[in-house]
Amino acid sequence: MDFEAMRAGLEQAVPFNQHLGLEVVELAIGRAVVRLPDDAGLRNHVGSQHASALFAAGQAAAGAALAATFVEHLEAVEPLADGAEITYKKIPRAAITATAVLAATPAELLEELERDGEVRFAIAVGLTDGAGDVVADMTSRWLVHRES
Q: How many domains does the chain have?
């Protein structure tokens, strides 16, 4: 699979992510890394990265990991965000890296999708600053079902 072409396509696919300047920097089956730039327009009232921008970076990373995992089935399935939780741990300064990793294997997810017509699962996302310190942890839940 040409993940480089997919990476570039994902960056163009969601206008809101373009607005934030999110960059997909790594993509593999079950894993994605998204970078949130350090931009004055993304800061909050105390000068740090805005909580909403962190959430968007985490959700974008989770969505990219999902897309890479289901890449051979994307035309036949519909992925939908099903919920999310985020815990803020440290004031986020500078550029932020959101790393999303699926807990289940692609084979497990595809087996359930084939058997039940849909699959629900969570993707863990860690958000770190330039020093590698965790600024937030996120769980993004998804529902993927076969299109009728």
A: 1
